[in-house]
Write a structure and sequence with these properties.
Blueprint lengths: L13 E6 L4 E6 L3 E4 L5 E6 L8 E8 L9 H13 L5 E9 L4 E11 L2 E12 L2 E9 L2 H16 L4
Antiparallel strand pairs: 1-2, 3-4, 4-5, 5-9, 6-7, 7-8, 8-9
């Protein structure tokens, strides 16, 4: 989408995407098109507009060999930050982390360059026991990200493990 949008996207309802094998569920806006990830991945990608696939919300989980604990936070933080810095033209706008005895999470909002486009993305990386879940909300541009942010926010904040 190249034109500037006005207002916020309209909600027509929410639906729950539950993936028992992957170990999570998320609430998504009705009308978004979903596709399962390919072989070797446990997740799905959802598009608010099926013809504009550079704007999306994705969720994927990984079963880890060991349970993640609070003692792992420094090395996880280092790896998360290294992953961000590896993106071309990255500009990290905000970062946050959550550390509890049962859940560890790393969040970042940033822009980066993909080909000729400057994209905006929000990544949320959650560890719960032996489960890692990665949520990505991406706008094809910063303006598209900002337009869809109310829906991205709701989905990011209502996940279930």
């Amino acid at each position: 989408m190249t034109e500037s949008r006005q207002g916020e996207p309209l909600y027509y309802g929410m639906f729950k995407h539950a993936d028992a094998k992957a170990g999570y569920a998320v609430w998504l806006p009705v009308g978004w098109t979903g596709l399962k990830m390919g072989k070797g991945h446990k997740g799905a990608v959802f598009f608010p507009e099926s013809e504009a696939q550079d704007t999306y919300f994705s969720c994927e989980s990984f079963k880890l060999r060991f349970a993640v604990t609070e003692q792992d936070v420094p090395v996880l933080r280092e790896g998360f930050n290294a992953g961000l810095q590896a993106l071309p033209g990255v500009d990290v706008e905000s970062q946050d982390e959550t550390v509890t005895p049962t859940l560890i999470g790393f969040d970042a909002r940033f822009t980066f360059v993909e080909g000729e486009a400057k994209r905006k993305r929000w990544v949320r990386n959650i560890y719960w026991g032996k489960l890692q879940i990665v949520f990505i909300a991406q706008g094809s541009t910063s303006a598209e990200f900002d337009y869809w942010l109310p829906m991205f926010y709701h989905t990011m904040m209502t996940f279930e493990v």
